[in-house]
Specification:
The complex is a heterotrimer.
Chain A: H1 3-6, H2 26-40, H3 46-57, H4 61-73, H5 75-83, H6 85-91, E1 101-105, E2 110-115, H7 124-127, H8 132-135, H9 137-142, H10 147-153, E3 163-168, E4 174-178, H11 190-196, H12 199-203
Parallel strand pairs in A: 1-4, 2-3
Helix pairs in contact in A: 4-5, 4-11, 5-6
Chain B: E1 10-13, H1 16-20, E2 36-46, H2 49-52, E3 62-70, H3 71-74, E4 85-91, E5 95-97
Antiparallel strand pairs in B: 1-2, 1-5, 2-3, 3-4
Chain C: H1 31-43, H2 53-61, H3 65-70, H4 73-87, H5 93-106
Helix pairs in contact in C: 1-4, 2-4
Classes of the chains: A mainly alpha, B mainly beta, C mainly alpha.
């Protein structure tokens, strides 16, 4: 996973590493035992766990993408999204579970990018599970200090005429980027526009 | 806890670990402590994570702000344009008015 | 600029540190890992209310640096959750150990 991967502009890296099966590791056994003891004690049921997994599988970056596409075609929705992300998510049927959402607009003047240096805060209800790299010490450590070179590793070159603004998600807010609408997309439907919105664009490490 | 700051105010992030010997769970990254920036907005009032992390009630709740810093002030060796910035959420008890 | 002397930085507080190129892979979580995520969401839900995300974080920040660096993402969560549940008296260490041995036997693993 070195140099040649840095040139890719895609959201998902090619040639995924075949992860070894860790389901019998000491930690996995601890995790399974913890879950089973908590079920025996009535904290929650096995069905609750299964229902939660199903709920989690239903969450993906398509939720956030739909909000962005709406904002591109509907100026009122865009204003509402920038004013109060949580409420704007709700109007499209997405519940952020009470978590405030700050939506940051990328413009000709400013490019925004999101990180959580202390842990891994991420708007999972709108973007689905966060990618492993977002949680890596490498990303968390460097993007606050050397954002332009980190962005280049994602294939994103922000000219010196634009401000790069990093957002460290240290507390109670969650963040999503409103990317610039790609050029020559006037003829596209809202659904077609949503298909152009990538997860990495919603984090701010790529442009569309 | 009354709201003390408003958008545009210049504030300095305190280091409660060094100043008051605070230990344990804290949400102000070391890299912003002692640094001066500008209040971008008040986010609302939230339970204090320093006690919530130990099963406490988080009271008194703390106003939470997004504070904008210039990258070139945070990192003396910053190579990007001077207008590059970073915004960090900081609870009010970690902030003091900046020296004029 | 700061006039205070910083304590040594906590190991999870990595902002500004250089750990090299970004590992550009998404991760593909196994069932036990996804179940840890589900378990945390259940424990912190209003209906169960046994955990706060702040406690999960504090538990991760007290795993020790070696464990923090060695464990996969949800491994850190699992170890934090177990520690906090024991701390709160929801379950005991021996109950957890007994269940682990039961699982080892079921799966034909060395005790």
């Amino acid at each position: 996973m070195t140099q040649d991967h840095h040139a890719h502009h895609h959201d998902h890296s090619h040639d995924p590493i075949e992860a070894p099966d860790t389901s019998n590791s000491d930690t996995a056994l601890l995790a399974d035992a913890l879950r089973l003891v908590l079920i025996e004690k009535g904290g929650f049921s096995a069905q609750d766990v299964q229902d939660q997994l199903t709920l989690m599988e239903g969450r993906s970056d398509r939720n956030g993408a739909a909000m962005i596409a709406r904002a591109w075609v509907d100026a009122d929705y865009k204003a509402a999204l920038l004013a109060n992300g949580k409420e704007a998510a709700k109007t499209l049927g997405h519940d952020t579970k009470g978590t405030p959402l700050v939506v940051l607009e990328n413009t000709e003047d400013v490019h925004n990018v999101v990180v959580c240096t202390l842990c891994s805060c991420y708007p999972v209800t709108l973007l689905g599970p966060s990618p492993e790299w977002y949680k890596s010490k490498a990303y968390r450590g460097r993007v606050v200090r050397d954002p332009r070179s980190v962005l280049r590793e994602f294939g994103t070159d922000i000219g010196n005429g634009r401000e790069v603004r990093v957002h460290d998600s240290t507390a109670d807010m969650r963040y999503m980027i409103l990317p610039k609408r790609p050029p020559e997309t006037d003829h596209l439907s809202e659904a077609e526009l949503a298909a152009l919105v990538t997860r990495n664009g919603l984090i701010g490490v790529t442009e569309l | 806890m009354a709201v003390r700051f408003t958008t545009g105010d210049r504030v300095t992030v305190r280091d409660l670990e060094a100043e008051e010997g605070l230990r344990g769970h804290m949400r102000a990254p070391v890299y912003c402590r002692g640094m001066t920036g500008e209040i971008e907005r008040l986010c609302g009032t939230f339970g204090n994570p320093e006690t919530l992390a130990y099963g406490g009630d988080g009271q008194p709740a703390q106003p939470l702000y997004r504070v904008r810093f210039q990258q070139s002030q945070l990192w003396p060796d910053y190579t990007g344009p001077t207008r590059d910035s970073i915004e960090i959420e900081v609870y009010q008890h970690w902030l003091k008015a900046a020296q004029p | 600029m700061t006039d205070s002397t910083f304590q040594s930085k906590a190991y999870h507080d990595v902002g500004g540190d250089d750990f090299g190129p970004i590992p550009l892979h998404d991760g593909d979580y196994q069932l036990w890992e996804r179940r840890v995520d589900a378990m945390m969401r259940l424990l912190s839900s209003p209906s169960v209310g046994l955990m706060r995300v702040d406690e999960l974080r504090r538990g991760i920040e007290t795993l020790g640096e070696a464990t923090y660096n060695a464990e996969p993402y949800y491994g850190k969560w699992a170890r934090s959750l177990a520690a906090i549940m024991i701390e709160k008296g929801v379950l005991s260490c021996s109950e957890l150990d007994a269940k682990i041995e039961e699982l080892r036997a079921e799966r034909g693993l060395e005790p």
